[in-house]
Amino acid sequence: MIRKASLVIVGALMGATAMSVLYSAGVPAQAAGPSTYKELSIFGDVFERVRAQYVTPPDEEKLVENAINGMLTSLDPHSSFLNAKDAEDMRTQTRGEFGGLGIEVTMEDELVKVIAPIDDTPASRAGILAGDLITEIDGTAVRGLKLEDAVEKMRGAVNTPIKLTVIREGADKPLEITVVRDIIAVRAVKSRVEGDVGYLRVISFTEKTYDDLEKAIQKIKAEVPADKLKGYVLDLRLNPGGLLDQAINVSDAFLERGEVVSTRGRNADETRRFNAGPGDLTDGKPVVVMINGGSASASEIVAGALQDLKRATVLGTRSFGKGSVQTIIPLGESGALRLTTALYYTPSGTSIQGTGIKPDIIVEQPLPEELQGKVRAEGESSLRGHITGQNETEEGSGSVAYVPPEAKDDIQLNYALDLLRGNKTDPSFPPSPDKAAAAKQ
């Protein structure tokens, strides 16, 4: 059964720093006072002086854009102006699909290295292989480009060709491969079976997340008989967040009832409460949720809901601590305004802004020797100009955000697997719904 939590205002984006976002047509504001209009006239005077007298002719569009962003970033780190291109990029992230080639890439020796082509995509059909090094994109040298710039060049309109020059181990000369772009659907959830445990990694919260999660759970059920399945690991580490409605749906997938999250704005009548409906997709099997300093926003909503409602044991290190909601206000062809309009609260009525989610079981993941001293703990509380949370202390939020590439080195994952298999005992596992119900009486 597919269940969708509906919002009064439709959900939207995932931003670079993790956004739980709503779309809105905007709310009329009260007229500003005379002093405000006087300050605006000063801004106009300064703009004209700069435009007319600066030593070199300035880009007027950039001047205005930077002025707007200066105003918004003075509010908090997550409010900003999105020009037309940024707004379109945001919509692409939200949809979870784009026109492209279908390859996972990284940067190596200033060249784009193919980690793996995604099955049944233009790249795999054209013969791109894991390990290929891309040196040119449509005749433009890759050296000197940032990875994001190279990726942007490879994206484009569906059914348009792109020529890649590739160095391949064993080939005596560079290969020229033409790939025709197609719609690439980004998987929001990856899954596998770890013996008798189902492993679910939610990468981001896009429009596809709940559907991907449902399919992943069904696949695990088909692979492991119900009497053999010990439970599920829900991995939210390094998950920067995304759509608020998808966070609600993912939480609902593991719940039969209860409040998932509430959002509270400037005025009391702006409070919204979102509840789970019947139908636990995992049939009540034990769940361990893993978080770290890279778990933010929508992923914190899920962890907080399953923790407060005693549906799961949360394991790992303290999460990022982004407890605010952004509204996307379209500005026509000019782009969009991303504005913080509310804070969200876990079912117990707790704001995690600046504090994050504290795991039931703290398990540190040591950094490898080559990363020690290079990776530091960061969280919302360390961001300049962040909204101070009502529960924020000097301890702050966040922790080191690192996950080993190999499962055998993943101490947090192996601890979670041992918990589900009964090889480790802890008073926080399994959680007791009866205690949670009693606490709410």
TrEMBL record:
GO biological process per UniProt: proteolysis
Superkingdom of the organism of origin: Bacteria
Family matches, as SUPFAM superfamilies: ClpP/crotonase (SSF52096), PDZ domain-like (SSF50156)
Leader sequence segment: 1-31
GO molecular function, one term: serine-type endopeptidase activity
EC number per UniProt: 3.4.21.102
Catalytic EC class: hydrolase
Signal in keyword set: yes
Domain PDZ positions: 87-157
InterPro entries tied to this protein: ClpP/crotonase-like_dom_sf, CtpA/B_N, PDZ, PDZ_sf, Peptidase_S41A, Tail-specific_protease
Keyword field: Hydrolase, Protease, Serine protease, Signal
Keyword RNA-binding tagged: no
Family from the record: Belongs to the peptidase S41A family.
Entry protein name: Carboxyl-terminal processing protease
Organism field: Pseudorhizobium tarimense
